[in-house]
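Summary of Year 1 activities. Much of the first year was spent building the evaluation harness for sequence design. The harness presents a backbone, in tokenized form, and records the residue chosen at every position. We chose the following record to illustrate the format because it has been used consistently in internal testing since the harness was completed.
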């Protein structure tokens, strides 16, 4: 072969080149070996010529050539002597069949495994002789066209690449692979040979039980390396790593093919299935099974213990999670909630009669949790003098599940089921009075027993809810746009503290072609009902959890059944409009949640704000649009209809366009045919295909997209209202004013703020391109810095915006009625302030209007930060890492497989269980795998896993020793700042104390010297604001030296916030246990009153060293007056609960 990297051509007399992948086949081996031992090898391979197979083939070829020469000599002699030529009974050059050595796979088997590792399981048992040949060829052509086998470049173009981009897209990955392959070759490491493939995975050591399902620790660690979400590894780079490991003498180092084989085996057992899908519009994509993702949570003991299965009535009245809010508690379709309670020896279902311990009969309709105990909202059952029972469904009462004694099946067994009122005389009453009576007319008995009891098959059965997020995302890490429609989901039965972790965001599907509505259709099929899809996959692969619930086992071997429902659709506003089948801002009714706007006549009427009709209305409007177009209505007229109603579905619109074209085609084909006749034909087809024509969002049980698309804080508030107010403020500033703002912003006190490090110059330089985290900084601090840079009207907008934002970011709601009232007032204040500045924005910016729905969404879903999409947006980075390593011919499949592998790895690392072969026994990874994550915090960070650990309240972190200090020297209390405290004499003056750096207060916040806190005042129940001046750690107690402040009686007239001042102008210190500090908060120095200016000068830090350039900075003047920052998101709910209402 030519020298490595020389670029010289190959001798065609020696090598056969395969043009598809530039691999080569040795002519000698193809001639001297049987077909089953033919092996296409890498072009740069250097080991082949020294291999045993090559040498054997050369010997066979040489012997054959010698035999030919001998025969030619015999032929010549025969010609001379006219002797008959001897015939050889078999071809001279036919290879001699070789016996397979036991334990060593044949070359054909090796090639088969290589193909399996590259393309998955696609085995063939030969042609089906019963199948018609023409049909077989036709089927092959269709499948090849579907997956792009005949025309990969055409497929690439259909995926969104232009003609000039096709070749680059196809070769993008290969160039990098070829570059690394050349480096390997130059280093003396050739590509995989047939001997590597034969021995891949066959020389493993004895499997290590502690690392099950991996054969050994090395394979386990390599699988981790290959599946880190944000550290993706190229195959060529993995070859380099494996080569380095072998060179350093590491044990159990597999080949890349051996590693991939083990990964595929493990994926089949404990991974996430990736399912091929074909939408009704003809788009192909792949989806990770959402049911398997939910099952992983239920089968993982670390996660399952956090799953909530019932709505909850909080004893303190504080709404923290979605199961505290109204949707789960009152507004959810009762059939979608968890239907039963497991009493151990009996299962109690809703809508079934049961008897209590005291002998009374009730019918539970809704399970809830109160004080950690399961209860049920129940209808009472009344029995009249005739012994007939009637269910009183006019009201419910709360009954503890522990009081339930006998369920419906028990009552049947003992013959204690009641005779229902009206059952005996139902026919007579119908004949005489034409009405049914009492209980029987309400069909309560017909729902007994609950139909889900049969589906559960004796197992406990519960409900899991998911939030479905869809968005358009670029698959490139560069600025070049490569549009993909991405779908993620979260398991809403988990608390918010878990859902805010990257670990609990699950990738479902992506496609550069199929829209979110098309992908959701397959998602709905998976969780609700599962007919065979367009690929002919039976419904067993799509689990259809409403009729065939998920089956999982816990550590004790108890089997549980799970149904999956969709809870809400958090997305940005355009996507939520698409999900809701809403036209958007172009419609007369421009809001997806209500009927604001409308034609001029409606706008001039006295009709107020009316909420939009539910999904049934939207579906009927879409059916009416389809009927219009079937009757020949033009697209211009249809567009007016859509604008007048606001109803337009992007998915249905494609069918409408097709129906319009079909109507025109039929009209041209037969001009004499009436429009009514054509309409009848088209409507017949529409009725037959009704299920395909309309958005699956409108047909989902327990999900109403017109109501279950809550406002989203990132896009509606930060990238909406905040960005608008920020824009109208800074665009009119001069360079001097911009510098002033930057200096003030950089001087912001950040203690007690939920923000990143402030980069003031960057924010001002790129003021029109800020992202969410930077706008968070702007809105929480803006009013302190713009007070003299904007007009009074603009300052009023800043105050209103800050107050509203702090209300929206609360993690818990103490009084939902009061909170909604405050929220409505704050929204009204902002809209009024903006209307004074520019009234047109109220009607042209839909995001301003959507603020009016914030209170309703908070009532329905709880704190709106639980529906924030920042985590979904950040997960896009993980998607892109997978996208750039795809070959761009099957991006949906490649990305789904990779992210499915990551899900499987996370499940194994955290101790999740999975069904072993036969699904009779559930197993988990070995102890070495389970405990690896908890021992390595760096791996936790890489996987987005944050262990739930709460620090001990009051614990102190010591100040680090200086470089010249060898040991800590205790200070006596009398030598500390605390010696001047009011209650100093309550402590021993000569006791020894260490200096502390920070401590943990009751709210789990870290408080440092200089922090502002609320703490108990001298052993009373009164909390006062204070400034931390010293932290002391003792052997038996930890103390904090605080300076007391008091709040002003009224709000500051400029900032609209209370001020902090010293009591009577005096310094008042007091000592308190660190355990008695309630929470910290943010306060800013009143620079306006003190007239602080940028009088300081300092060197600018560049490359971590002081440069020769200088900058000015704000120097705070001696005025001990501070402003409590009510615009801060951090602990805003605690501030509201602590301060008087007038402040």
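For this record, the design step produced the sequence shown next.
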């Amino acid at each position: 072969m030519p020298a490595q990297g020389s670029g010289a051509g190959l001798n065609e007399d020696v090598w056969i080149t395969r043009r598809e992948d530039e691999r080569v086949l040795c002519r000698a081996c193809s001639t001297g070996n049987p077909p089953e031992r033919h092996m296409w090898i890498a072009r740069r391979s250097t080991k082949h010529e020294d291999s045993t197979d090559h040498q054997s083939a050369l010997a066979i070829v040489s012997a054959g050539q010698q035999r030919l020469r001998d025969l030619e000599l015999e032929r010549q002699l025969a010609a001379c002597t006219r002797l008959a030529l001897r015939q050889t009974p078999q071809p001279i050059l036919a290879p001699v069949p070789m016996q397979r050595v036991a334990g060593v796979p044949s070359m054909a088997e090796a090639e088969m495994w290589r193909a399996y590792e590259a393309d998955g399981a696609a085995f063939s048992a030969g042609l089906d002789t019963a199948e018609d040949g023409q049909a077989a060829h036709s089927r092959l052509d269709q499948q090849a066209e579907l997956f792009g086998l005949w025309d990969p470049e055409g497929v690439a173009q259909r995926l969104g690449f232009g003609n000039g981009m096709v070749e680059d897209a196809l070769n993008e990955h290969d160039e990098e692979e070829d570059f690394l392959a050349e480096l390997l070759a130059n280093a003396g490491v050739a590509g995989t040979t047939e001997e590597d493939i034969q021995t891949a995975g066959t020389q493993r050591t004895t499997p290590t039980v502690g690392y099950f399902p991996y054969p050994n620790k090395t394979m386990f660690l390599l699988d981790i390396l290959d599946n880190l979400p944000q550290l993706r590894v190229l195959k060529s780079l993995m070859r380099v790593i494996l080569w380095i490991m072998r060179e350093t003498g590491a044990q159990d180092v597999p080949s890349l093919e051996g590693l991939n084989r083990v990964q595929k085996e493990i994926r089949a057992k404990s991974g996430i299935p990736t399912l091929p899908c074909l939408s009704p519009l003809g788009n192909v994509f792949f989806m990770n099974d959402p049911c398997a993702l939910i099952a992983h949570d239920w089968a993982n003991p670390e996660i399952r213990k956090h799953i909530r299965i019932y709505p909850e009535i909080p004893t303190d009245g504080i709404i923290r999670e979605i199961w505290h809010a109204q949707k789960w508690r009152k507004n959810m379709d009762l059939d979608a909630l968890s239907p039963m309670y497991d009493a151990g020896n009996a299962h109690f279902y809703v809508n079934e009669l049961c008897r209590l311990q005291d002998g009374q009969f009730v019918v539970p309709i809704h399970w809830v949790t109160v004080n950690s105990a399961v209860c049920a909202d129940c209808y009472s059952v009344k029995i009249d003098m005739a012994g007939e029972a009637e269910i009183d469904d006019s009201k419910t009462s709360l009954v503890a599940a522990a009081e339930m004694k006998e369920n419906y099946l028990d009552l049947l067994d003992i013959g204690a089921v009641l005779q229902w009122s009206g059952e005996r005389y139902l026919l007579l009453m119908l004949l005489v009075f034409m009405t049914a009576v009492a209980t029987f007319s309400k069909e309560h008995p017909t729902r007994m027993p609950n139909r889900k009891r049969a589906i559960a098959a004796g197992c406990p059965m519960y409900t899991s809810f998911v939030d479905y997020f869809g968005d358009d995302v670029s698959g490139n890490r560069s600025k070049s746009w490569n549009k993909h429609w991405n779908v993620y989901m979260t398991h809403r039965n988990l608390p918010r503290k878990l859902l805010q972790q990257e670990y609990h965001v699950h990738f479902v599907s992506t496609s550069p072609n199929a829209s979110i509505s098309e992908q959701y259709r397959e998602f709905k099929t998976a969780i609700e009902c599962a007919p065979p899809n367009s690929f002919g996959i039976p419904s067993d692969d799509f689990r259809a959890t409403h009729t065939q619930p998920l089956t999982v086992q816990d550590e004790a071997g108890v089997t549980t059944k799970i149904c999956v429902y969709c809870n809400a659709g958090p997305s940005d506003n355009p996507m939520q409009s698409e999900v809701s089948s809403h036209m958007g801002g172009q419609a007369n009714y421009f809001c997806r949640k209500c009927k604001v706007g409308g034609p001029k006549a409606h706008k001039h009427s006295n009709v107020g704000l009316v909420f939009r009709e539910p999904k049934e209305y939207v579906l009927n409007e879409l059916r009416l649009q389809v009927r219009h177009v079937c009757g020949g209505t033009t697209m211009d007229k249809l567009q007016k209809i859509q604008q007048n109603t606001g109803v337009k579905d992007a998915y249905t619109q494609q069918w409408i366009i097709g129906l319009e074209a079909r109507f025109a085609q039929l009209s041209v084909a037969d001009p004499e045919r009436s429009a009514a006749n054509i309409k009848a034909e088209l409507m017949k087809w529409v009725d037959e295909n009704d299920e395909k024509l309309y958005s699956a969002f409108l047909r989902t049980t327990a999900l109403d997209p017109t109501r279950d698309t809550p406002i989203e804080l990132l896009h509606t508030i930060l990238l909406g209202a905040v960005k608008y107010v920020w824009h109208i403020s800074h665009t009119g500033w001069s360079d001097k004013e911009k510098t002033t703002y930057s200096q003030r912003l950089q001087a912001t006190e950040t203690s007690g703020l939920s923000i990143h490090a402030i980069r003031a110059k960057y924010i001002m330089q790129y003021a029109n391109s800020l992202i969410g985290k930077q706008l968070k900084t702007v809105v929480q601090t803006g009013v302190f810095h713009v007070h003299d840079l904007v007009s009074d009207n603009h300052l009023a907008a800043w105050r209103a915006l800050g107050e509203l934002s702090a209300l929206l970011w609360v993690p818990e709601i103490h009084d939902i009625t009061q909170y909604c009232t405050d929220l409505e007032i704050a929204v009204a204040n902002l809209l009024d302030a903006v209307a004074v500045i520019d009234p047109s924005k109220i009607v042209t910016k839909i995001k301003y209007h959507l603020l009016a729905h914030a209170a309703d969404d908070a009532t329905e879903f709880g704190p709106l930060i639980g529906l924030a999409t920042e985590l979904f947006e950040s997960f896009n980075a993980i998607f892109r890492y997978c996208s750039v390593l795809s070959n761009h011919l099957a991006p949906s499949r490649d990305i789904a497989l990779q992210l499915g592998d990551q899900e499987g790895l996370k499940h194994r690392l955290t101790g999740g269980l999975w069904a072993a072969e036969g699904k009779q026994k559930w197993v988990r990874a070995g102890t070495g795998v389970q405990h690896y994550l908890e021992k390595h915090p760096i791996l936790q960070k890489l996987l987005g896993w944050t262990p739930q650990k709460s620090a001990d309240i009051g614990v102190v972190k010591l100040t680090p020793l200086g470089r010249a200090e060898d040991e800590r020297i205790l200070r006596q209390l009398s030598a500390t700042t605390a010696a001047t405290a009011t209650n100093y004499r309550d402590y021993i003056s000569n006791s020894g104390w260490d200096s502390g750096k920070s401590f943990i207060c009751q709210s789990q916040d870290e408080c440092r010297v200089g922090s502002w806190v609320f703490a108990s005042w001298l052993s009373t129940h009164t909390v006062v604001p204070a400034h931390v001046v010293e932290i002391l750690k003792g052997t038996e107690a930890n103390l904090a030296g605080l300076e007391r402040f008091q709040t002003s009686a009224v709000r500051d007239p400029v900032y609209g916030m209370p001020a902090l001042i010293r009591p009577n102008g005096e310094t008042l210190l007091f000592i308190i246990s660190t355990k008695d500090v309630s929470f910290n908060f943010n306060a800013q120095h009143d620079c306006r009153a003190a007239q602080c200016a940028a009088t300081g000068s300092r060197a600018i830090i560049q490359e971590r060293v002081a440069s020769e350039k200088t900058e000015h900075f704000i120097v705070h003047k001696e005025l001990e007056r501070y402003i409590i920052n009510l615009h801060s998101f951090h602990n805003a709910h605690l501030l509201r609960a602590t301060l008087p209402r007038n402040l």
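Residues 582-694 form one domain. Quantitative recovery figures across the full test set are reported in Table 2.
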